[in-house]
Design goal:
Mean pLDDT: 84
Low-confidence stretches: 1-22, 156-163
CATH architecture: Sandwich
Number of strands: 11
Number of helices: 1
CATH topology: Immunoglobulin-like
Order of helices and strands: HEEEEEEEEEEE
Structural class: mainly beta
Distance between the termini: 46 Å
Helix content: 10-25%
Shape: globular
Radius of gyration: 18 Å
Largest sheet: 11 strands, mixed
C-alpha cells in the first residue's frame, strides 16, 4: 500500500514539474505568447512560416513590430484573397494586440514569414526567435517544428533542439 501511495505522489509531483514545459508559452508583462510553431519545409525551400496566439492581459494595447532570428530574414504578413488570388500583404505597422484581447497568427491569415532560409525546417526541431513588441520589448521564444498535417501538431514532447 505504501509503495502505491509513494508512486502516485511521485507521479503527481513529476506531472506538476513537467507541465509548465509542456505548455510551451512565453510571457512578457501582460502578454502571453502561446505555442509558437512552424511546419517542416522541403529541402530546397527558401521560406517558411511561424504561427502562435498572443494574448494581452494588460490594460493597454501593444504591437508586435518585428521578429528577429539568426536563420532568416523575417516579416509579418497576412494572407488575403484578392480577386481570386491569394496574396501575402506585408504588415508594415506590425500587428496590434488589443488590451484584454488575443490575436492568432495561423495558416491562411496573419503569420511570421521566414525568408532566405539557410537550411530547411526539420520535423522535431526548435527554432529560436525574438519577438519585438512596441511596449513589452524583446521576448525570446521557441518555434516548435512539426510535419504539416501531423496527427497532433501541438504535441512537441519528443522535439530536439535545432543544431
Amino acid at each position: 500500500m505504501k509503495t502505491a501511495s509513494l508512486t502516485a505522489a511521485l507521479s503527481l509531483a513529476i506531472g506538476f514539474a513537467v507541465s509548465p514545459l509542456m505548455a510551451h508559452d512565453f510571457k512578457a508583462g501582460g502578454l502571453t505568447i502561446d505555442h509558437p510553431y512552424s511546419f517542416a519545409t522541403p529541402p530546397t525551400a527558401r521560406a517558411g512560416a511561424g504561427y502562435m496566439t498572443i494574448t494581452n492581459n494588460g490594460d493597454e494595447a501593444d504591437r508586435l513590430i518585428d521578429v528577429k532570428t539568426d536563420f532568416s530574414r523575417n516579416a509579418i504578413h497576412e494572407s488575403n484573397m484578392v480577386s481570386g488570388i491569394m496574396k501575402m500583404i506585408f504588415q508594415d505597422k506590425g500587428v496590434e494586440i488589443p488590451a484584454g484581447g488575443s490575436v492568432t497568427l495561423q495558416p491562411g491569415g496573419l503569420h511570421v514569414m521566414f525568408m532566405d532560409l539557410k537550411a530547411p525546417f526539420k520535423d522535431g526541431t526548435e527554432l529560436s526567435a525574438t519577438l519585438v513588441f512596441e511596449k513589452a520589448g524583446e521576448v525570446p521564444v521557441v518555434f516548435n517544428v512539426s510535419k504539416r498535417n501531423s496527427a497532433d501538431a501541438t504535441d512537441h514532447s519528443a522535439h530536439k533542439k535545432a543544431e
